[in-house]
Amino acid sequence: MFSFQTIVENLPTLLGAARYTLLISVLGCAQGLILGALLCAAALSKRTALRRAAGLYVSFFRGVPLLIQLLVAYYLLPVVGINVPPLAAAVLTVGLCAAAYLSEVLRGSINAIPKGQAEAALAIGMTPRDLWVRVLLPQALKIGLPAIVNELILLVKASSLVTVVGIVEITRMSQSIASSTYRYLEIYLAAAFLYLAINLVIAAAGRLLERRLTV
Amino acid sequence: MSLEPTAPASAHLRNVDKFYGDFQALKNVTLDIPPGKVTCLIGPSGSGKSTLLRCINFLEEYDSGEVRIDDRLIGYETPGGRRMSGRRLREMRRDIGMVFQQFNLWPHMTALQNVAEGLERVRGLKRAEATERAREALAKVGLADKEANHPSRLSGGQQQRVAIARAIAMQPRIMLFDEPTSALDPELVGEVLAVMKQLAAEGMTMVVVTHEMGFAAHVADRVVFMERGELVAAGAPREIFQNPADQRLASFLQGYRERNSLDF
Ligand SMILES: Nc1ncnc2c1ncn2[C@@H]1O[C@H](COP(=O)(O)OP(=O)(O)OP(=O)(O)O)[C@@H](O)[C@H]1O
Ligand SMILES: [Mg+2]
To answer: Where are the transmembrane segments (chain A) (predicted)?
Structure first.
């Protein structure tokens, strides 16, 4: 017998856990975008050392599974004397990882901007910083928006991995409720809908933004 | 009025060489751009006109020789020496306006924002003052009523006039134009040339790469013909167009006349 009752009873608990999913996704994404923009600037820099460093960073954080990164952060940080709460470590790691992917999205987008855009800025004497902030990044964000939205959605789903450092977000919470109530189907369906709802909101926001940026 | 005319600058190229890898795009070019005058650069495609023009604001790094704005060397600290600092280069570029073939307006900004951006960020004007001066510049190119339009909502001719407004708002002392009308539909060329004529009449120093021989013949004070990276001939429009002394120049003009079946 399918039991809606179970879902209704456990929804508040699941929603409570969804706070962590959201927190990690939102903070991770903000960190990923900021750091990703900086990484992208480094990757496109004239300085070879900066380009190399950015390349190494991207190779590492894209090449190692997030799960392993989380475990490394969780066990490594205390060893080197940094004691941060698991939640902070998780947000940080997710952000670092997202930055690697987002920097590549941004790099591709910036390469798609006609060279004349930067030349016009340089010709009036703009600083490299203003060139980036005022001319290149706004255009790159627009060009890369669909890909960025993709990354954010992946991020929301990947946030379930933070359970390995003991954070009880949607997936972990649904497992534990399911095993105590034996209502696996109901609870996992509820979890599925929660993820779906979050990601539909992100997708809708992306489309809205895309329309607003189109002039 | 805040858009007061500025003292026009001169530019001087001495023995300028420019290489792209093994290919030499500029060969020992020496040229003086007099202040307050219009100098037109003509020549076949690939002859190095854009390269020369872009050396003047160091968008293109020349490899040897000297390029000066008035008497200030641009790009290097000393001839053949170290690159000049970014700050000093930016300071010099503020005084050099540039207008591109493809306009290069920033598509995410309105016409007004395109013009005000440099005033705020580079000249450091307050928002209100920048806006006021940007409006003045737009009015000057006849686009006061289009300030809220994004570039995609402007015709090619209007976009190019906004680009000119963006340059003149900075109150440059010399302006560089790289084929400003080549991307335009023929019926839109006139409005852009009219704005350029007005600037010329106000005594702006202008260097114009152009295929508009009519403009060169009627507006230029001096016409410079380039071929294969070399400066081949220079003189008053009359000398260049009516009695071309150089054989290569004569055949270039011949070809142009045949293609356009025009007389000038
Ligand atoms: N970035 C570059 N890398 C390699 N070669 C280049 C580069 N830019 C220009 N060139 C070459 O240098 C030569 C001069 O180019 P330039 O653009 O100055 O010519 P132009 O006279 O402006 O031609 P057009 O009338 O077609 O604009 C050409 O042969 C061109 O192929
Ligand atoms: Mg050219």
So the answer is: 20-44, 56-77, 83-102, 187-209
